[in-house]
Amino acid sequence: MRGTLVNLTVNPCKMCMPMGAATALYGIKKCMSILHGSQGCSTYIRRHMATHYNEPVDIASSSLTEEGTVYGGERNLMQGLINLIKVYHPEVIGVATTCLAETIGEDVQRIISNFYEIYPEYRQVTIIPIASPGYSGTQYEGYMEALYQIVKAVPMNTVRHQKVNVVTGQLSPADTRYLKTILDSFGLDYILLPDLSENLDGGYEPEYQKLPAGGTDIREIGKMAGARMTIELSTFAGETKSVGRYLQETYGVPCQVLNLPVGLRDSDRLLKFLKALTGREIPAAIRKERARYLDAMVDSHKYFGEVRAAIYGETDFAYSMVRLCTENGIFPVLTATGSKGDRLKELIREELQGVSDILNIRETIILDEVDFQTIEARAREAKVNLMIGNSDGRRIAGKLGIPLIRRGFPIHDHVGGQRLRILGYEGSLSILDEIANCMIDRKESSFRDELYARYYKKLQADISMQATSVKPAESRTDDRTQSHPCFNCKAHKYARMHLPIAPRCNISCNYCLRKYDCPNESRPGVTTQILKPQEALQKFLEARKKVPYLTVVGIAGPGDALANFPETRKTLELIRKEDQDITFCLSTNGLMLPHYAEDLISLGVSHVTVTMNVVDPSIGAKIYGYVDYMGVRYEGEAGAAILLTNQMAGLKLLTSRGIVCKVNIVMLKGINDSHIPEVVHKCKELGVTMTNIMPLIPVKGSVFEQLEPVGEDELLAMRKACGNTLKQMYHCRQCRADALGTLGQESFSIAVASRSGIMVDQHFGHVTEFYIYQYHNGDIQLKETRQVEKYCDGSLECEEKEDRIGRIIHSIADCNAVIALRIGEAPREKLKAKGIQVFTDCDGIEAALHKAASKLRIKAENHMAK
Amino acid sequence: MGNETLLEDRRDFIFVKQEGCSGKGLRCDSNSVSGSVSQRACVYCGARVVLNPITDAVHIVHGPIGCASYTWDIRGSLSSGSDLYRNSFSTDLQEKDVIFGGEKRLEAALEEVIEKKHPRLIFVYATCIVGVIGDDVEAVCKRMAAKHKLRIIPVQSPGFSGNKATGYKLACDAIMELIAPHKAKKQLKQPGLNILGDFNLAGELWMVKNYLKQMEIPVIAGITGDSSYDTLLQAPVATLNVVQCAGSSTYLAKRMEEELGIPYIKVSFYGMEDTMNSLLRIAEELNNAEARKRAMFLVDRETRKLEEFLKVYRPRLKGKKAAIYVGGGFKAISLIRQFRSLGMETVLVGTQTGKKEEYEIITELVDETAVVLDDANPAELERFIKEKGAHILVGGVKERPLAYKLGLAFCDHNHERKHPLCGFDGVVNFTKEIDQSINHPVWSYLKEADL
How far is Cα A204 from Cα A525, in angstroms, rounded to an integer? Predict the structure, then answer.
């Protein structure tokens, strides 16, 4: 750790040995691995790998516990091995140790020997111990150690054969497949160790196989000692445990170490070597790949001059990337690895020496055993403008605002990590194209602004324009109707608020006395206090805090909303600023509707009620005293005709624009009562949603003071008759102009069996505590939580100790109903006998209460009807 | 698929629901079976999950590099302040430290990080080998805290010392250690609450706070979502704790109730129903009728919008079968309900660390023939997903590739996600995610996997 902090690693640029071991083991056929240690190691490593490869990664754990740690984990490991064999039927098991197992001094070799002795039936499973304490190296060492231990543990057949061993560091599955294609194209017979090509990049198969079926066969590994030679594609394997060197030293198999075939020179090197080895020509297809790569190098070469690259990752990867960069005139200003890297430093310096003059490179930074905090600091300092490495560098790239070319392991923020390539001309080309495109994009996205800012901006002052858009009112109208208590009888729990801001009226109705509120929408009574728009807003804001379900603001007089249009407009504008969701509703006699319909729509009014008593001027003349229109007072039929025409034109205008319209009709005995069906028909034609036929409320002092109001039966009959034509409103309350609240009435006490207090989640018989709710007009209030035991008052039911159910029932004797998750038949009957309704539910309490209340309501109504 | 996928040792942890049988028989809350490829993590993991969102703290992993490497910034907890918590600090113990002890290294690390980063709060997580080599982490922390006048709280979380739930408990103890000295005097109490067990994944805590703001209920501290040293020290003045992630934080709530006199309730903001009921419950618990009304209004406005939205999606999802494998039981319960509200049935439920009483509710809620599993492994998941004909799996990162290999849709319900799944917006995200995966054209092509 020679980072910006000496004693602390901040944001590690390395992983631990078991990770590398597990990865290598995934390249062995029918092999499972088990980590000897605590559960977390395998889970974290599985997560790390699964996110990169997008494949299921099954790695077992011996799940060492406290006891195992103190007395040794032999029993845990043995049980783990047995379980693993039973579920997965592997041919090979790699037992990789962890920090913990190594620290408590587990002798895995001995445990495996004991295991074979106790369970001879499992002897056919090759169990390989791999010492991989997390503190002894990085994933690179763990990977190499695993390969080394596998080769050491597998019984070797030294009979000579013509196969060639090919050993690699950690390659992506796609790169592994490519390597195999190259080897095959020379007709080479080889043993590849390991082979990650299938197991960590499997296809979709009709039947999923949880035991990896791809990878290097252990029988093939057993032949490695007899191979013609070993090609080790890892510059740095010799630094740790080298399979090639082991086979050479132990069995005399010659070993050739080559750099990873990345970039032109190292790809050439491998191909030339294979050519010499097999005596075959380099296949034409590969020569074409090379030609294309060369062509691409030429095509893109001018984009590379400005690149200041930071490269980080495992030593083999970092070295290959440096060589690829230098070939292409890319300046690797920073190279970093989390592992030890003395030899890497040496080799990079060598590499740069040869090209520094050509590239005009003055200095470069090479870091080993480094963390990302240090890489970030040095990258800033070196003005890096592009990074090449795994996805852990994305945070730095993000902070510096520079691109990251993702290669290596892990890739956690993109998909396809398992298919990223670096090997051969094709893999190199993919990197080259990406780098070039990053530089092109950078230029493309910035050059206009940069040049504009530099040269043009000074010439011209900024002109900024702001456009405001008006939301169309129609889009949410259906939704609004659902929650409008006057338009939807099922919306009885919702509240509306009428704002009395409109004192003046422009017509005279014979059932109305102007001294009082207009009875169209308001019961006569106390004269309403008229509010100014600003006061109306305040009143609304207060109400919104207090009234649940306040969904509608309406303007209903006391005069006519449209005869006071400036106030109406101002009020609605003020409220809309404070509340985007509230529904606007308005009621009017309709005289001025054609004039203001467009304004209403743009103000966001979605619901309009027009009081239209007749569609025949001659009848209208009996109802309307006068009509003040455009500065002239019209009386009799003339006035009624103007009113009627405007009402119909206005309604048509509104409905054609999606505004929901209701028509109120005051039923006047002997005047318009027989005419009403005609009015309703007309309404239907006009696109009106519903009509509300209302009884006359005789007002003292009005012309119709003496007119007898229609009876309840007559009214209902008329509504029913007209119901065939158009939807009827049955629940009108003929509210005041300053009305506020909901339209219904109901009240129940309900006990809920709940453990959580949120859900109905308890069986009736298990209840120790009930939540007692009061349901009132759709409003729910928790009254208390009631202990069943404490509720016993010494009455008979409580004395029978064994009768728990009796005590539970007794505790809720005062309730109308009880809701529980489940309930037995006997208690259900007992409750029923006591008049307590039973509901079973597993919903949330709120929903369950509403359901129960609605059933209670229906029951109550039926009862009333009887 | 034969029965060999079920290990004898695992049988007690699996429960196949049958009519007339309650779920009391399911075994849970035990150590994982060796070699069974458990999906569980370790004690350190549990502790880190809970403490990680404390944004201005330095979290030092005392041990070899692996634990720090795999937990570096892997969670989607968002911060409105410091980003310090997104760094991974490790003492990166080497072979020689294991032999000679790591205390000196820890001390030097603390010295350095205090000097360079000026934190006011440091957590030191002792991992596996620290528990074995016998470093006196507690003493080092105490000494350094006294010397530098800041809080350094050791978390003794060697992986072998229990399971993830043990880690939760340790984290809760650490939080108590931090806040207990700041116990409020009675008269200082102001109305307001702490939200426990919400880690502000994808801004979920902010969402909940917004709801509470509309109810005019102040939130004192998120524990530990988007929290800081200062906000945590305020926590003792709260009048109520609401516990969102019951598995991780109920223990803390209990301790705060006993030692600080703050009562608690359990809530859940996953799904429309749970969110509604939780908001109402909070208002009720505070005895605040006004807040309840405001909550009703809020809930109502939002559910109306959602109902419109769901009208489109319910027919697309009706009758589909879901499998659930998540960390805690409370979350599983919420998910079952959410699926039901979409017209879907749940055929498999498993959790890593579910509690007995949670499994009881789960077995009540699920379909008649559903399977319930504690600490399931991939082989079991595979077997029962196939057997039950599930269409989608909800789970974490490790389960995703398995689902895909089995030709199953998938919903990410993990700590890494970048979109909120709680509250009302969460319903939209969740439903869309389910729909986009389940109704994707790719599944029809899988049926012709073989040419």
Answer: 78
**Cβ atoms within 10 A of the Cβ of A362, count?**
8
State how far the Cα of A178 lies from the Cα of A420, in Å rounded to an integer.
11
Write out chain A residues lying below 8 Å of B161, CB-based.
65-66
What the block records as the tokens of A274 is: 């294979």
Strand A190-193's sheet: what is its strand order? A190-193, A164-168, A229-233, A255-257
> In 3D, which of A207, A188, A189, A209 has the Cα closest to residue A198?
A209
ipTM of predicted assembly, 2 dp:
0.89
Which positions ≥6 away from B400 have C-beta within 8 Å?
A: A50, A54, B410, B412
Name every chain B residue with its beta carbon within 8 A of the beta carbon of A206.
449-450
SS3 A358: helix
Burial state string for B416-434 with b = 16 or more CB within 10 A and e = fewer than 16: bbebbbbbbbbbbbbbebb
Task: Name the residue in chain A with its Cα closest to that of B358.
Answer: A761
Helix/strand/coil percent split, chain A, to 5: 45, 20, 35
pLDDT tens, position by position, A373-412: 999 999 999 999 999 999 999 999 999 999 999 999 999 9
Helix (H), strand (E), coil (C) string for A785-821? EEECCCCCCCCHHHHCCCCHHHHHHHHCCCCCEEEEC
Higher pLDDT, A98 or A492: A98
Distance CA A291, CA A580 (A): 64
The residue among A251, A250, A270, A248 whose CA lies nearest residue A259 is A270
pTM of the model: 0.74
Interchain pair A39, B32: CB under 8 A = yes
User: Which helix (DSSP H) or strand (DSSP E) does residue A829 occupy?
Assistant: helix A825-833
pLDDT of residue A100 exceeding 90, the answer is yes
Strands (E) located in B98-146 = 121-126
Question: Which residue of chain B comes nearest to A581, CA vs CA?
Answer: B301
Phi-psi category of A553—alpha, beta or left, where left has phi over 0 and alpha has psi -120 to 50? Answer: beta
CA distance A319 to A326: 11
Distance from CA of B101 to the nearest CA of A (A): 12
Alpha-helical (H) ranges within A159-262 are: 173-185, 218-221, 243-251
In chain B, residues with a C-beta closer than 8 Å to the C-beta of A373 are 87
Residues 65-104 of A with CB under 8 A from B: 65-66, 68-69, 76-77, 79-84, 86-89, 98-100, 103-104
Region of residue A405 (phi > 0: left; psi between -120 and 50: alpha; otherwise: beta): beta
Give me chain A's average pLDDT, please.
86
Instruction: Categorize the per-residue pLDDT at A20 as very low, low, confident or very high, splitting at 50, 70 and 90.
Output: very high
Q: Which domains does chain B have, with CATH numbers?
A: 1-36+318-451 (3.40.50.1980), 43-169 (3.40.50.1980), 182-296 (3.40.50.1980)
- Whether B87 sits inside 8 A of A103 (CB atoms) is no
Lowest mean pLDDT among A407-421, A587-601, B73-87: A587-601
For residue A560, the model assigns a pLDDT of 86
**CA–CA distance, B120 with B227 (Å, rounded to integer):** 13
Residue B391 three-state SS: coil
Higher pLDDT, residue A794 or B237: B237
What does the block give as tokens for A633?
Answer: 């007072």
